[in-house]
């Protein structure tokens, strides 16, 4: 994983930061950002020559000033395990998704399997999207679904309160 | 001695570093430190993650510079900010003493 991802995963862990000036900061990582700016807590700051020490309850380090950081060995092992697990999980999901979409060319909903979060539908469907929610839940369990109501369906009402939609296929086969 | 054939994209940083991942490397920092370790990952700024890193501390002998002494100090996992790296190279394990 990327160095900054490793750093983000190290939140809460003790670490040692050496700055370009040679000062070292030993403490627990609270948070970090994309510029490597850090906030640490329970910090012991040592001078470059190692002679003087300062204890700080909290500390902010600008990423630019960092020379390097040292983290516990166990952290890397832990992260590798998590990575492996995630990769195995997502591999399973990928295969399931292909099964659901076999022969289903109208359905442009790419998040079939783990679509507990229906943000795609919420964004595109200006009306009540209960239908879509139901469809997505069914996609998880049933293979054949020629529905056009998932994903990018748009429905609107004209002045006569007639409901229109831009999908030709309004029949959901379950 | 085999001659290594360089692929054409080997002159980009990313491609060059990619070949060194999970290999033992030496990293010379701008402050003069020499770190050895297994390169685990990198990014576009050449920030490096080094595992099982150790530092060779060079102590020149007084008078007789031939018999310089090295101290080896193991340091665990390093995340090195890319701008502090002077150079990095892959270590040929066949020729390595450790």
TrEMBL record, chain A:
CDD domains: LSm4. Coiled coil: none annotated. The keyword Nucleus applies. Residues 2-75 form the Sm domain. It holds the Pfam family LSM. Residues 97-155 have a biased composition (Low complexity). Residues 83-174 are annotated as: Disordered. Binds specifically to the 3'-terminal U-tract of U6 snRNA. This is LSM complex subunit LSM4.
Automatic annotation (TrEMBL), chain B:
GO terms for molecular function: mRNA binding. InterPro entries: Lsm1, LSM_dom_sf, PTHR15588, Sm, Sm_dom_euk/arc. GO terms for cellular component: Lsm1-7-Pat1 complex; P-body; ribonucleoprotein complex. The keyword Protein biosynthesis does not apply. The keyword Ribonucleoprotein applies. It is found in: Cytoplasm; Cytoplasm, P-body. GO terms for biological process: deadenylation-dependent decapping of nuclear-transcribed mRNA; mRNA processing. Keywords: Cytoplasm, mRNA processing, Ribonucleoprotein, RNA-binding. CDD domains: LSm1. Its main location: cytoplasm. Belongs to the snRNP Sm proteins family. Component of the cytoplasmic LSM1-LSM7 complex which is involved in mRNA degradation. Component of the heptameric LSM1-LSM7 complex that forms a seven-membered ring structure with a donut shape. This is U6 snRNA-associated Sm-like protein LSm1.
